[in-house]
């Protein structure tokens, strides 16, 4: 592979990671199928470290104020009971609750999951499952929203844990359902399931929250905030496992990773802004359709290459 091809490959990998990390189409799945389509070698772990760091910076760039407020409110709330009704304190607790299942799944199933990263067929199947969840949970969310007053007040993302989802639906017609402790845990289960390549982390967390009728825009924002500790944890774990390899990488490899880093950061920031704006007025069915198309493409390529 010459220098120009190497640069193009680095750009494609960076764009793929940045867009697919936040669009509900599975970044891990795309980092399997893109090399498969182009007959490239699968990315080594140290390369994934750089990509995760880039998308982490994209998140922090977009949500540094929210993240700072959530962290400060959480620590203040630990020592001051009267501050625990603050919405940012509650969001922090919801994020912690939702992060537990993924942490457990990652710890116990990491070796099993790694085996799927060289099997495009499973990625295609998992992309179809992602599409199903995006479609069905959006339909369910609309059914729940239809029970509410069409003139209900459009509140900003206030994540209320004082009442269960059923109580909020049955007892009030003035606002959309809000996040609570049980829903946060269920969203966390969705995130844990999505450790498999092809099952979109953002797709599952958004869909699981949307299932309960939570506003689409709030689902997207919570999914992004929830991904900060997950991506940070992945970055630290991968860095720990591959720091010696990174330190001994050649100048050419470092240049390739730098190019991928820049494009992953820029495209990640774009994906965050785009999905946030899209979710305000439109559903995410376009991504479900994309997952289906990509899955069909995988199956066709597998069949053609089998002859």
What does this structure look like?
With 307 residues, the chain is mainly α. It has one domain (3-305). The chain has helices spanning 3-22, 27-38, 45-79, 87-114, 120-146, 165-171, 181-193, 201-210, 216-247, 251-281, 285-305. Helix 1 (3-22) packs parallel to helix 3 (45-79). The longest helix is centred in the first third of the chain and has 35 residues, at 45-79. The radius of gyration is 20 Å and the shape is globular. The two termini are 27 Å apart.
Quick take:
By secondary structure, the chain is an all-alpha fold. It contains 11 helices and no strands.
Low-confidence blocks of residues = 152-174
Reported for the largest beta sheet, the result is:
none
Strand content: under 5%
For the secondary structure, the number of strands is 0
- Average of the residue pLDDT scores: 87
* H/E topology pattern: HHHHHHHHHHH
Distance between the termini: 27 Å
Our count of domains comes out at 1
Rg: 20 Å
Structural class computed from helices and strand pairing: mainly alpha
Q: If helices are DSSP runs of H or I spanning 4 or more residues, what is the number of helices?
A: 11
The global form is globular
Secondary structure: helix percent: over 70%
């Amino acid at each position: 592979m010459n220098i120009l091809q190497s640069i193009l490959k680095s750009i494609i990998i960076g764009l793929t990671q940045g867009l697919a990390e936040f669009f509900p189409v599975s970044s891990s799945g795309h980092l399997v199928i893109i090399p498969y389509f182009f007959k490239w070698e699968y990315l080594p772990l140290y390369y994934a470290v750089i990509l995760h760091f880039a998308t982490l910076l994209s998140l922090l760039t977009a949500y540094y104020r929210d993240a700072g407020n959530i962290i400060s409110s959480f620590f203040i709330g630990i020592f001051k009971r009267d501050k625990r009704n603050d919405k940012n304190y509650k969001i922090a607790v919801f994020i912690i609750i939702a992060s537990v299942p993924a942490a457990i799944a990652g710890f116990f199933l990491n070796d099993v999951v790694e085996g799927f990263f060289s099997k495009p067929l499973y990625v295609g199947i998992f992309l179809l499952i992602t599409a199903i969840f995006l479609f069905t949970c959006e339909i369910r969310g609309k059914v729940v929203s239809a029970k509410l007053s069409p003139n209900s007040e459009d509140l900003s993302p206030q994540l209320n844990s004082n009442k269960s989802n059923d109580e909020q639906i049955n007892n009030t017609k003035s606002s959309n359902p809000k996040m609570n402790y049980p829903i946060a845990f269920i969203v966390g289960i969705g995130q844990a399931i999505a450790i498999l390549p092809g099952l979109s982390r953002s797709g599952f967390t958004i869909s699981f929250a949307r299932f309960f009728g939570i506003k689409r825009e709030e689902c997207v924002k919570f999914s992004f905030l929830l991904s900060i500790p997950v991506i940070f944890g992945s970055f630290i774990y991968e860095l720990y496992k591959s720091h010696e390899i990174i330190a001994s990488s050649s100048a050419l490899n470092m240049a390739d990773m730098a190019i991928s880093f820049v494009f992953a950061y820029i495209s990640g920031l774009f994906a965050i802004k785009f999905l946030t704006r899209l979710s305000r007025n439109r559903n995410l069915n376009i991504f479900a359709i994309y997952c289906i198309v990509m899955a069909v493409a995988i199956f066709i390529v597998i069949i053609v290459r089998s002859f």
